[in-house]
Amino acid sequence: MQKIDELFEASCLQFSVPLKSDNFHTYIPIEIYNDTHRFQFLIRKGKKSKILILAGQQRVYLTDDQIIRTILSMEDNETEWFLAQFISLYVGNGVQTTLELDKTKSTYTGLPSFPEERDILLFSDTNIKLSHFCFLLNFIFAKDQCWGKMSNTPNFEKKTLCKYISIIDYYHNASTYSKAFLKGLGYPVKYAQSSNYISTQKAFKEIDCVEKFDISYYL
Description:
By secondary structure, the protein is an alpha+beta fold. The chain contains 7 helices and 8 strands. The longest helix is centred in the middle third of the chain and has 22 residues, at 130-151.
């Protein structure tokens, strides 16, 4: 992630743009791969970084809420596969994933590729491969791992996983533990009874959500 900042700063200098400008963005290609698959995304870098899926002429950005809704819209066995992988990754069991950015390679722990390839439909009516969706998630997890180390924030890499596990378990399995956990964070379980109304930003804003989360209920 430091490399992304360096490339952004170089672009700002090239075009004589202040680093804190709200209106300037640069696009940085990044490749992610494991032993079986390889895929390229774009990073839209400004004050914040957003990862864009390349699908034909489309450039698609997915929020956490849209990612969760996509997983919940899959076949039951696929939703359960993702949930199991998130739980496994939370306790430190993942597969090696490589990110390549401007010829610089970094290795992180992420998800394996989905065992059976197929297309999935995103909210934008964009079709992508399940393996590419896994790579999108792996970039998110790599970013969390990197930021946790850079900011010296314990368990930061578990924050997104905690969100995905509890929300998916609540909607897919009607879990009483996940419901109680989410209610304790201020998630509107009374009103958001349908996965169409997922809104996680406020509930998972603080890092202490990880401290309140007990992964043993899912093992």
